[in-house]
Amino acid sequence: MLKRQNHRMTRQRKVILEELKKVKTHPRADEIYEMVRKQLPRISLGTVYRNLEVLCELKEIQKLELVGTLKRFDGTPENHYHIRCIKCDRLDDAPFEIETNLEKKLRPYTDYSIIGHRLEFIGLCPDCAKRSQ
Fold this sequence. Notes:
It is a single chain. This protein has about 130 residues and is an alpha+beta fold. It folds into 2 domains: about 1-75, Orthogonal Bundle (Arc Repressor Mutant, subunit A); about 80-133, Dna Ligase, domain 1 (2-Layer Sandwich). Helix content is about 35%, strand content about 15%. The chain contains 5 helices and 5 strands. The strands form 2 sheets. A 3-stranded mixed beta sheet has the order 4-3-5, with no helix packed on it. The longest helix has 13 residues, at about 45-55. The termini are far apart.
């Protein structure tokens, strides 16, 4: 996809994408930077940020700008729901398909041109739930 949109798949971009696709934790940019530095010790945090933005624009990854948290990144570009722990900010994929009829249901009630939706469930992760008992 990168080459089709006149972007080269640089070694840095490739490593960032590969590292992000290896994890299911939806890391922040600084966490991705630490992961990538193991293979590219001279890479800068700014380079990681720039390449994450390019990968988002190209729809290779998703940028998650959730309430109450820093930007997180998801190696799965397809739309899907998330579950976030309100204590530790752990973020997981919700284990079911998106509801495509929600946009149609909302249209009669708004003047907005609905183009999609994002849904975040909140609660306590298993670890935090155990600690709070």
